[in-house]
Design a protein that fits this description.
Layout lengths: L3 E6 L6 H15 L3 E6 L7 H6 L4 E3 L10 H13 L3 E5 L1 H10 L7 E6 L7 H10 L5 E4 L2 H9 L8 E3 L13 H11 L5 E5 L8 H14 L4 E5 L5 H10 L6 E5 L4 H7 L2 E4 L8 H8 L4 E4 L4 H4 L6 E4 L4 H12 L3 H18 L2 H18 L5
Parallel strand pairs: 1-2, 1-4, 2-3, 4-5, 5-6, 6-7, 8-9, 8-11, 9-10, 11-12, 12-13
Helix pairs in contact: 1-15, 3-4, 4-5, 7-10, 8-13, 11-14
Length: 374
């Protein structure tokens, strides 16, 4: 029987959810699945990576926010031509569109994966509830997200399952040579904090910058590296100047060398107001970095407070600053101990191969329910 999986995503960009989808697609392909990827919006990243291993990438070309039936018809046409046995959608817009198109282009199994604890307001939650009968199963990347979805009635408890994000622990691992080289190229010497992510409201970079302004009063040699792009980047650059910390904050833009940047850092910091299960926390943990993060979404499933790092309340620059100072005042050996515990926790619970095993088992389970043996 044909083992065709179509992965549908809202976008293809350098974001955590998109990165996870790409890693899943490539691993499934290597395990013998026929895989295709569809992006609702024009792709901005990863097309070459996918096509290099024989995974076709399609785009629905959505650019406008107001309703347009043409992308629905395009998606239906691609599905009818490709005939996947499984459509696996990721993120809210792709999840809703996959449900809407199913009656127009029937396929055996539909799995919808939510990557955030909050998909963006009551209307979307209502749409999830109304379209749920068109979906075989919804998955959540965090236990916190799963519990919230059931609590608000977006998904019945028997139709949702927890499957976390997974990280490639061979790609992200401690590497002294990378550390030496990256720090030299970046021209950094003192204590280095790293943050990676889009400049969007959920990441609350203003919280981070305010906290770091307090940190450098006590540790003026420290440096904050921020990798990423997004609509609020310019605003945050202006804020750094207003706080007088622009010489100690390096806005790196989009980078393809995140494993090397992780090794260059002494600790990782996350200031988000809400999250699902952030890939960057898994990557930082796999690299052996101790972490200071806000206690939102699935963060506490990755960061074990007092064991692999410290958790603080969201939207509280003072609490974030105090935790960062606490981390910096630990001995180097104690920070390494936190980092070793972080990597061990990820290897045991969030390795990419382990997570792909979970996806394969789920695919086969749902196909067997439909009478399709693998």
């Amino acid at each position: 029987m044909r083992k065709g999986v179509m992965l549908l995503t809202t976008s293809l960009a350098y974001g955590g959810a998109e990165t996870q989808l790409v890693r899943l697609a490539i691993r499934l392909k290597s395990r013998g699945w026929e895989v295709g990827v569809i992006s609702l919006m024009p792709p901005k990243a990863y097309v070459e990576d996918l096509e290099a291993v024989g995974i076709p990438v399609f785009s629905l070309g959505i650019r406008r926010k107001f309703p347009d039936p043409r992308p629905v018809l395009r998606l239906a046409r691609i599905i009818r031509e490709w005939q996947p046995v499984i459509v696996h959608s990721h993120m809210v817009h792709a999840n809703l569109l996959a449900r809407i198109v199913r009656p127009l282009a029937p396929f055996p199994v539909l799995i919808c994966s939510a990557h955030s604890i909050d998909e963006g307001g009551c209307l979307r939650e209502i749409l999830y509830r109304l379209t749920d009968p068109l979906c075989d199963l919804t998955t959540q990347v965090s236990q916190a997200g799963l519990e919230r979805y059931v609590r608000i009635g977006a998904v019945p408890c028997h139709k949702i399952r927890y499957i976390p994000n997974g990280v490639d622990t061979e790609r992200f691992k401690p590497n002294p040579e990378d550390r030496f080289r990256a720090r030299k190229e970046l021209g950094v010497d003192g204590f280095v904090w790293l943050a990676v992510g889009r400049f969007d409201p959920p990441k609350d970079y203003s919280n981070m910058l305010q906290a770091f302004a307090h940190v450098i009063l006590n540790h003026p040699e420290s440096v904050l590296l921020i990798a990423g792009d997004g609509p609020l980047k310019k605003t945050m650059e202006n804020m750094a100047r207003e706080l007088g910390i622009e010489k100690r904050v390096n806005f790196l833009g989009i980078r393809r060398d995140i494993p090397q940047l992780m090794n260059a850092a002494d600790a990782y910091v996350m200031s988000s107001s809400w999250e699902g299960m952030p890939m960057v926390l898994l990557e930082a943990s796999a690299t052996g970095l101790p972490i200071v993060a806000t206690d939102v979404g699935g963060n506490r499933e990755v960061v074990l407070d007092g064991v692999t790092g410290f958790l603080v309340p969201p939207r509280n620059p003072e609490a974030l600053a105090q935790a960062m100072l606490r981390m910096m005042e630990l001995s180097e050996e104690k920070r390494r101990e936190l980092g070793r515990a972080a990597r061990k926790h990820v290897e045991e619970n969030f390795s990419l191969d382990r997570v792909v095993d979970m996806w394969e088992a789920l695919y086969k389970e749902l196909l067997e329910r439909k009478g399709r043996k693998q």
